[in-house]
Amino acid sequence: MIGKISGRLDYRMGDHVLIEASGVGYIVHCSERTLAALPVEGSHVALYTEMVVREDLMQLYGFLTLAEKEWHRLLTSVQGVGAKAALAILGTLGPEGTSRAIALGDIAAVKAAQGIGPKIAARVVNELQDKAPAIMALGASGARRAMAAAPVVATPVADAPVIDTVIDEGPASDGLAQADALSALVNLGYAHGEAASAVAQASGEGGDAGALIKAALKLLAPKG
């Protein structure tokens, strides 16, 4: 199984690229969003990959992040959603948008992808809603690692408002899980204060970032 390819971007077409790695050219199918994010031809690129094998076909699909790759895997586990349909959803919404739509039960957003009808969109949301928090945590963790690796540039910052809600400090792993959960909830569109409050309440039950997100979403759900 080929899980990642790093090499020179030889060319790109409407739905795929060719990456040359160690003298071998790999055709890798990508979403429109991923294709648009890749550098110019001749540049070095790295893509996480998933190999789809059928009786008459063997294709590689490429993703910029592990969260995008995992969403593609989960989407194709839904009956009626093939590899290209999963790419269409990710190309329309992106991994964060897919997390947001499925976590919040937004069937209309999923249906906006080309070739996805209302029945398939509803099936995607219903079957994957419980799995969304884990992928949201994966995406938040990846973003945190990227920020930690980036060089720090000191710039003057204006006085910022103080948020009263503070997430309790605990073991390092607990703190990272809470930070990832908070980041994921803010990306969903919740205000920082209410998201922090929900994570703080949910953290009393323990668990990893995915469990915290799931518990916090229940706390944030409209009461009716």
Automatic annotation (TrEMBL):
Entries under InterPro entries matching the protein: DNA_helicase_Holl-junc_RuvA_I, Hlx-hairpin-Hlx_DNA-bd_motif, NA-bd_OB-fold, RuvA, RuvA_2-like, RuvA_C, RuvA_C_sf
Keyword Cell inner membrane annotated: no
Single GO BP term: DNA repair
Record keywords: ATP-binding, Cytoplasm, DNA damage, DNA recombination, DNA repair, DNA-binding, Helicase, Hydrolase, Nucleotide-binding
Region (Domain I): 1-64
Record flagged with keyword Iron: no
Database matches in SUPFAM superfamilies: DNA helicase RuvA subunit, C-terminal domain (SSF46929), Nucleic acid-binding proteins (SSF50249), RuvA domain 2-like (SSF47781)
Complex and partners: Homotetramer. Forms an RuvA(8)-RuvB(12)-Holliday junction (HJ) complex. HJ DNA is sandwiched between 2 RuvA tetramers; dsDNA enters through RuvA and exits via RuvB. An RuvB hexamer assembles on each DNA strand where it exits the tetramer. Each RuvB hexamer is contacted by two RuvA subunits (via domain III) on 2 adjacent RuvB subunits; this complex drives branch migration. In the full resolvosome a probable DNA-RuvA(4)-RuvB(12)-RuvC(2) complex forms which resolves the HJ.
Domain notes from UniProt: Has three domains with a flexible linker between the domains II and III and assumes an 'L' shape. Domain III is highly mobile and contacts RuvB.
Xref: HAMAP family: DNA_HJ_migration_RuvA
Function as written in the Swiss-Prot or TrEMBL entry: The RuvA-RuvB-RuvC complex processes Holliday junction (HJ) DNA during genetic recombination and DNA repair, while the RuvA-RuvB complex plays an important role in the rescue of blocked DNA replication forks via replication fork reversal (RFR). RuvA specifically binds to HJ cruciform DNA, conferring on it an open structure. The RuvB hexamer acts as an ATP-dependent pump, pulling dsDNA into and through the RuvAB complex. HJ branch migration allows RuvC to scan DNA until it finds its consensus sequence, where it cleaves and resolves the cruciform DNA.
Protein name as it appears in the record: Holliday junction branch migration complex subunit RuvA
Organism listed in the record: Pontivivens marinum
Organism ancestry: Bacteria, Pseudomonadati, Pseudomonadota, Alphaproteobacteria, Rhodobacterales
Gene behind this protein: ruvA
